Amino acid sequence: MNNNKVPNNRAWLLVLPMLVLVAFSAVIPLMTVVNYSVQDVLGPNASFFTGTEWFKTMLNDEALQSAFLRQISFSLIILAIQIPLGIGIALIMPKRGWQASAVLILITLPLLIPWNVVGSIWQIFTRGDIGLMGWGLRELGIDYNITGNASDAWVTIVLMDVWHWTPLVAMLCYSGLRSIPEAYYQAARIDRASKWAVFRYIQLPKLTNVLVIAVLLRFMHSFMIYAEPFVLTGGGPGSSTTFLSQSLATMAIGQQDLGPSAAFSLIYFLVILLVSWVFYTTIMHMQKDKPPHGGA
Question: How far apart are CA 64 and CA 71, in angstroms?
């Protein structure tokens, strides 16, 4: 008697609509971008094959190199602030009762605001005549001007992003903390472990998976940020807050340079994939290298 069963592949029919959707929404546009990146498009029916010429031009463009340095600096600053801050907020949030529900509702409010509206809110907030922050700093005698001082513009953009997206990190960490069984805390109380020991050997290891998600999400979004700084500063003063996304939009939409902008977008995409892979690999290796048990 043959007990080998023929696998039932009909389940793939359930996945087929999603595959078709992905093909139309991702694969086909990506192939179009790849096609444009190796051509010099002169018109609807006029184009010439250029090979890798646009890629070389984009990699050697000093303005784009400066924008890349600003972009990576911004993303690293955001991660260095929001990840520890999000963990700290999650640790002090109420664990149960109506207080927990109220805090969760309040902390998610910034996430509900559209990105371009966030830029408008902070643009008004920092004005010296009608903005609370700008007026308060002016009354303290602090010369604050995001349109004329690059440092002020940078600090404001960082504060704006921290205010807008730290709640996401906090909620992810909060969900990770809530998933830790109470037995771990009971064992720690029996061993008279300190709060730092509980965090170091119980909470932080259990947060690894959600921290990977938080780091990847925050890096990818901060590396592609566009609407908020564009509305707030317009990329100024000068080009001090002009990030890669703004340079790409100017090239593709403002200047209609389809070949260079297509090559630039592919480089942009590959950089995000590479850095995200580095973050993921580093965090997972750190988790694997930890000893299975730690003293408290």
Answer: 10
